[in-house]
Amino acid sequence: xxxxxxxxxxxxxxxxxxxxxxxxxxxxxxxxxxxxxxxxxxxxxxxxxxxxxxxxxxxxxxxxxxxxxxxxxxxxxxxxxxxxxxxxxxxxxxxxxxxxxx
Length: 102
Hints:
Strand content: over 45%
Distance between the termini: 37 Å
Helix content: 10-25%
Order of helices and strands: EEEEEEEEH
Structural class: mainly beta
Largest sheet: 6 strands, antiparallel
Number of strands: 8
Radius of gyration: 15 Å
């Protein structure tokens, strides 16, 4: 567990059977006041589940970023995410393109 200015971050590698597709599972918890952060592109697609006292649970699929983004993580926000690795992204999108996944 890493604490970065009161942000709590945990990351876990997937079990072997998922490792071709999933780079990691991670969690971010902001137990205190709003935090302004900069997100840097990392070459992954992330499936993000987020909830805070002011917002209901919502799910976002973020694509591969091309530039840094300023983001505010609101007070008491909890985020859980699945980061897909590049090989998994390629397999998924190739499968979708050729009609294997609909």
